[in-house]
Design goal:
- The chain is of the alpha/beta class.
- It contains six helices and five strands.
- About 40% of the residues lie in helices and about 20% in strands.
- The protein has a five-stranded parallel β-sheet with strand order 2-1-3-4-5, sandwiched between helices.
- Helix 5 links the parallel strand 4 and strand 5.
- It is globular, with a radius of gyration of 14 Å.
- The N and C termini lie close together (about 10 Å).
- About 35% of the residues are buried.
Length: about 140
């Protein structure tokens, strides 16, 4: 089976390096080639890395509550750079304050994200979803 490449990072002014490393480890163990751009990443860094590595997906993480602001326009920038169809996942504490996750999820789906995960989601779920979304056969 062909190895799929994912770009992983923490967007905005967020520095949750531990969660980033856990995701890196989990996706690597699951057989993905992980391009980890680390913390404090900009939209442009995600896109540049995806183009440079011919990535199959972008995985955006945010824990400090400003993900909605940091992620707005990412799909449009991908389209401008010619990778408009790339799969984009986002997860973590994406908004400030206590908000119903379903409404948060709907906002991010409307912004062009393929999948949205609440805080505390274990890596198994997005790994399984990504395999499905990429049409990977599971042995």
């Amino acid at each position: 089976m062909e190895q799929k490449t994912v770009v992983l990072g923490v967007i905005g002014s967020d520095v949750h390096a531990v969660g980033n490393r856990i995701l890196d480890f989990a996706f690597t163990q699951a057989g993905f080639k992980v391009i980890n751009i680390g913390v404090l990443a900009t939209q442009e860094e995600f896109i540049h890395s995806a183009i440079e590595t011919n990535a199959d997906a972008i995985l955006v993480s945010s824990l400090y509550g400003h993900g909605e602001m940091d992620c707005r326009g990412l799909r449009e920038k991908c389209q401008e750079k010619g990778i408009g169809d790339i799969i984009i996942y986002v997860g973590g504490n994406l908004v400030c304050g206590k908000q119903e996750f379903e409404s948060v999820k709907e906002r991010f789906l409307a912004m062009g994200f393929n999948r949205v995960y609440p805080p505390g989601t274990l890596p198994d779920l997005p790994i399984e979803d990504l395999r499905k979304d990429l049409g990977m056969t599971i042995n």
